[in-house]
Every structure is written in structure tokens, then in C-alpha cells.
Amino acid sequence: MKISENWLRQWVNPANTSAELGEQLTMLGLELDDITPIAPEFSGVVVGQVITCDKHPDADKLSVTTVNVGTDEHLQIVCGATNVRAGLKVAVATVGAVLPPIDGKEFKIKKGKLRGVESQGMLCGASELGLIDEIDGLLELDDDAPIGVNVREYLGLDGQIFDVAITPNRGDCLSVLGLAREIGVVNGLSLNRPEIITTAPTLDKTVAVKVDNPTACPRYLAQYIGSIDRTVKTPKWLKDSLVASGLRTHNFLVDVTNFILLELGQPLHAFDADKIVGSIVVRLAQKGETVELLNEQTITLSGDELVIADEVGVLALAGIMGGARSAVSDTTTNIVLESAHFNQLAIAGRARRFGLHTDASARFERGVDFNLPKIALDRATTLIASIAGGQVGQITTAESVSDLPKRTTISVPFAKVEKLLGISLPSDTITELLNRLEINTTFDGTAFTCQPPSHRFDLNISEDIIEEIARVHGYANIAPRLPEFAVDMSYDDTADLTHTLKLTLAKQGYFEAVSFSFCDEKLEKLLNDDKLGDILPLANPISSELAVMRRTLLSSLLPIVSHNLNRQQADVRLFEVGLSFVGKDVASLAQINSLAIIATGKVTDSIHGVRATDFYDLKADVETLLPTHVLPSYERADLAFLHSGQSAYLVVNGEKVGYFGQLHPSIASELDLPAVWVAQFELDKLINLHRTPLAVSLPSKFPSVKRDLAFFVDKSLSWQEVADTVRASAGEYLSDVVLFDVYEGDKLPEGKKSLAFTMTLENREATLSDDEIKALMDRVAVALSERFGAVLRDG
Fold it and tell me: Which residues in the chain land under pLDDT 50?
């Protein structure tokens, strides 16, 4: 954004040079891209008045003038401009004047002759002075321009233009008011605000306004102003402010709205009141609706754009650009002046959609103070009425207070300020600093309570407030300080233990796989089980094959197995560490850190040679993942996607750590796979087992005793249940129990099987007596009989 330094200093004028002022803006986070003069260097140019204007005797396109420049003698100057005439106030480059260089060469005015007629200077157009030409010809000065005054002084050309890069979060600084507010705060100066009054209505005339979408437009003000004198030119002070900010002037009405835009940051729009049919309606566009804009571009609307319309159609693209049908022309004397607050989301992206970038859209997209519309309307109305004699109607206000942006209170702990900034500031200093920023702040001894002002859309959390403290206190005033290094002797071994588990599987011949957390919904449905929760679809999937969250890592590993088998790689052994997602819905979703393994194909052992992988191969691989001192137990798995007779839960200390077994044959057949062996465990539980310290004890000095027992039990009874009962009933002298025989046959009672196991007994304090051993064996027999109806075999 370009803004005049002179204009800025009218609001707040610190004792700083232009460069120092620019440096302050940069350090406040409003980076100064460039400082350029309003006009290039030139000298010897004064205000003059054409006294006479006659035709050149030897050239039809030249005129011979006499010009009063405030000296005792008038100058004779030959001029070729078409708009030269007697009585005109002009910029006169006298003999010896130095004008801006042309093609890098100095342009100095000398006395000379043009077609035989002496010329004692030059009458200048805007381009000769390095300014923008508004007309083809001489630069016409106001009738009250004082003759003989230096043109640089009269036009205010000695100031600078600040080109400030405003970040997207600081839309409040896209105005003189916004920049002056920042400069005033950092220099401890109050603002010299112009007096803004509400002009009393002189007409009993209102504008009918209806807002159909208050969410997008929570505040809309319109005011009728009639009988405007369009012969009135833009006042010099207003024109100078615009020119000094890098803008071209147009006509009085356009110049006033541009002036308010730059001064206060509130976009305004003037409609030709005589071209509006019926009421003004603020609504969403209808799909396919068209409108011709002020830039003569006709656009077709999609239906989500906010528009200003009447009974005929669209008048303007809200917050972006007006339409040609209701445009103000040089003959317009009756206008409707619009001042509104539009929601950022209702404007954002719409201008770019049609290849537009306007001053209004740049501000509304970033957020405009929702309390500005009335202030800006009053300012514009007063200027128009006082300068051009307009008759003022009543203000029509349509607003929905509940839809205006909310400014929530922010709590900032005092200790957090020092923690983030690295410096200690007194609470009173912080409170005073924030209040200067118009952030209403109080301190209760431990925290600041901050209420952001209506123009600050970027203040939402405590860190935003602390950033304000740093900005205004000054980054240069924050001395470097080494951070405190607190040594934390605690050590998180999760990564190391995970790596150890990976190495263990790698030594068993497994390869690590890395895949997405998304999978194919068809595969998830095949691996369905109520214990895994519902299938969770993605709102915006990458592809149809990655459309749902995986509830088990097997959903990622099975396609990899298929990929390898399809390329003649028959023996596949893979593992993966990653998240599985289990839950009935998003609210109850649990992300479980998991370890899964999968195997298919052949294995080789020293006894049988090459053979197919079976359940016990998988079980052996699973047990390598456990610490040697952990004694696992197993329960029959009841997961629908596992083979019911060749699958189990891994249980440690009564808690399920995971499952393993054969993928259900029907699923394998559906996927065109051979027998596949799978397992998945909760990684955190496995890691915690490795963190359990191993209890070390000296070998017993007394001998151990082994005793065998065999029982008839129901075929449905698992060995694990029997072993658990043996351990519970045998007592402290039982150091181990091992199943060594399972027999089923015709010679046994129907529905029964024989289980035989060896118990190792040991008393670390003394040698076990025969009576103690017999009592222990009897307790085991009774416990098995009472719980399972087990019958002791005689031999």
C-alpha cells in the first residue's frame, strides 16, 4: 500500500526523519518496501498566470503568451499546448530551471527562439514535472493559486510516498488511520483525528434496503444525497492527499470515496440514485446471473457471490466492484452512498475468481473494522454536502448484531510473557502498552485480561497478545539471552525398544513394510469384526483404494502379499509398525500403536527340511518378541477373520497383548491367496513387557522334584485353562509346569481327551518331603476335578 508521508504526519508527527519513520514501521511488522519522492527533483518552477495568449505569426500550432510570475516584468513564452488560454494559472519553468531528466540527461531551461519568436521559459504539463498527466496539455492549477510561489511548495511535492507491505493478518493497517495508530503507539503520541460529525438531514428521503443474507452482510448503511453540484472540482488539499499517495484523481465523487478508503480503510460505493429500481437488496447471486462491471467486464456468477441488487438485477459485486448500470457519471447529481461491513468469508476468493483485484476486496478479505461504516459514511457525507452543496437524506441502517464478528476476551498469564519473550517487563508497563494499542487490558496479579478492539481480527489467543507486547516494546530492546538448559535424566526408551523388536523380526527373516493408514473399503469389510468398531470413511479420499481408515494393519499388508505373489515371490514374510484406528465413530476413535506380522509360503527346519509354514512357526516367531522372563499364556481367538481352530490371543498377566493365527480360509480364497499366517499386537504393551525388570535370584541349594500327572478332560477344554488351575492350586513350590502329551482316541471315553504334564517342584529353604509332595499333588488333583470334572488316569 502506498501512502503519503505528509498525510500520515497530519495524523501523528513524531520527531523522526522519513527513514527513521520507515524503520519504525518495519520493526512493527509493517515492512517498508520503498520510500519514493512524490515527484522527482526539479527546481525553478513557479506558479504563473497567462495574461495574454496570441497566435504565433509563423506557426499555427504555437501560441505566444505573456505570463505573470510575480516579478516586475512579465515573461514572453511560446507554448504549443492546446489548452493554453488567458487567465489560466500554470506551472512556469523560468530561465535556469532544471526539470526532471529526459533519457538520463539533465533538462535545463534556457532563453531561446521558436520560429523566430523569443521564449523566456516554458509552460509545463504534469509529465514535464514527473507527475501523472490527467489531461493532454498544460497542468492547470486552481484559480486561487498564489502567483510566484514555488510549485513544489504549492503542490506539496517535497514529501515522500511510503510503500508499505501489509501482511494478510493486518488489514487494519491498510489506511492512514491504521498506520498512524501504530506510529502513535510506538512513539507514545496521541492521534490528531479529524472531527467527524453526522450531517443533519435536509431531505425527508430514505433508501429502502433489505438484507437477505445477514451472515454475509451483518451491517449495511445507505444514504441518499441529492442535488450535488457537479461543476465543483476536487479541493486541492484532497487532491494533494491522493496524488501524494500515488493515486490519480478522477472527479469529485470518486475522489471522495477514494479519500475515505485511504484515510479510514472503509470502502464506500456511490450508486446513481436515478438508476436504482425499487429497493436495494443484499443477497446471494443466482447461478448464471450476469453483470457488467465498472471495468466493462461482463461476468457470469456462480451463485455463491454476494451481490447488491435491485428489482431489475445486480447493481454491484459486493465488496469488490460496482456495476456499470448504476455507475456514477459526470452528470450524476443524485447518489446513494453505500457503507457496509461484509464478512471476510463472503468476499474471500471471489475477486480472484474473476481475475479482479480491487482496493475494496483487498480490505474486506482481510477484515474491516465493523464499527467503521457509520463513521466513514458520516465523513463522506459531510465532505460532499459541505463542498458540493448536496442535500442529505436519512440514513438507512440494516444490521444483525448477532452476526457481527465477536471479540472474545483473552487471558494471558503474566509468567507466559517472560517465558516466550525472554525478558521481564513490569505488569504496569505491559498493561499501559496494551491499552495504547486499544486492547482494553486489566491485571489481577497473575494474568492479564485483554479485550481486543473491533479493528483487530488477528488477536485470538494469548500468543497474539504477547506478540503485540514484543512489537511495541521493540524487538531491538529484547536483549539476547541464552536459554536455560535443564538436564532431564529421564529417558524414553520407546524408540530403542521398537527398533529392538524390528531387529528381532528381521533376524527371523521378516522385511519391514511402510504403508498408508488408509485402505480399501472392500478389504476392510472382509476383515470385519464387531470388536474392531465401525469402518470409518474419509471425507476426501486420495483414491477409491484408499477410502477408509484401517482398523488393522493387515488391511495394508495383505495387498503387499498379493503384489509379491503375483510376481512369483512365493515366500513372503513382512512386518509393519503403525497406527490402527478403532472406534464406533470419530468421537470414540482410538489410534492404537500396533505391530503386525504376516507370513506365507515355505520354511526350512533341520528335521523336516522344506515344508509349509504352520501355526507353530508363527507362534515361535511371536514368542521371540517377548522377554525371556515373561511367561505368556494363550486363549482361543474369537475374531471373525481368523481360523477358529488355528488362532489365539497372546495373554500376559491376564491382559490380552494381541492375536495371531491363520487368516480365515474363506477370506484367503476371496483374495486368491494361499494359507496366510497373521498377527497383530499393541506395540505399547509389548514395549512395557520389555521394561519390566528381570528378577534375578541365586539357584536353590536344594534339589527339585519332578512329578507327572495325566487326566481325562473334555475335548473342548484348552491346555491353558488346565495349566492356570495347576499353577493356582499347587502353591509356591511349583516352579514350572509343562504339557508333554495330548491323546485322543477310540479307547478313551466319548468326548474326552488325555492331558499329561510334568510339574517341577522346589523348596528353596529345604528339601521337599514325600508328604509335602503328596499333599501338593492331591491339591492339584482335587482342584482339577472340582473345576473341570477331570479324572486322574491310573497309568
Answer: none
